[in-house]
Predict the structure.
Amino acid sequence: MVLSIFQDLPAENISFTSFKLTGFYTLGEWRRFLFIPYFLMFLLSTISNTTLICLIISLRVLHSPMFVLIGLMAVVDLLMPMFFVPNMLLSFLFDWNQISLVSCLIQVFGIQYVGAYQSTVLLWMALDRFFAICRPLSYHKNMQISNFLKFVIVSVIRNGLLNITMVSLVGKLHFCKKNEIDHCFCEHMGLVQLACGDTSVNNVLGLTTALLIATADFVFIAVSYVIIFASVMKSGKSSMKAINTCVTHIIVITFSLVFALTAFLSYRITNNISPNSRIFISTMYTLFPSCCNPIIYGVRTKEIRQQFLKIFNRVKPQ
């Protein structure tokens, strides 16, 4: 009787408090085999970023601002997969696909907030290169903690306020359409699409957050590198070391931007993208840079590469 009364309630009076993650379920039994590539990528991300962080912390020669910022990027890349990959791997193996609304909101906030620092740290790196190449005489003054902190505080407050507001508004929605999320983890737009009623504010805030964080950061990064390259060309000096560092940052920026735009557009062009392709793009957007960034910095940054080889040769059995 209670069940029949519950079923007769209008949809808007029902709000689900737990959800089922159904990402890749159309693959059937083949879904379990996804554990292998995703586990290997997670292992690579964890080991490579942890190694890079330990290397930078333990060696005084790597305590300059540029390497500290590379270490911060490694921290971001280490934390990002932690919010969703372990649960996703358990889901692949044991079909553990239930998640509460609170856990889902925590996951959305973690991915959004930590992910915001992928572009923010790249912006700080661009500022470091700008001061090093275009303002070399005042580099140490500009990169002192007391002076550089103003760039950090503004970014941290912006990232925090926008993401807290966005997730808080999602938490106030009523989810009455269905309780199945066609994904392997909770995403902002994936959760909003399950809500009944008007979600225009959530959609606008999602776009605004993307514009004010990722897009704004990449615009400032682009302007910084245009000024840097123009300064080098104009002066005619051979700043190959500085340019090489810039190229390393640009490679990382390109990877991040391509995956971010692809993941963002995959929710807006749903008719032309299959669900499995969209889920794959989203997982790669959050996981692939975490695997590649430490390798790119380790291979292309001479100082990091040399220090790593020294330690490796020291511990290598004779």
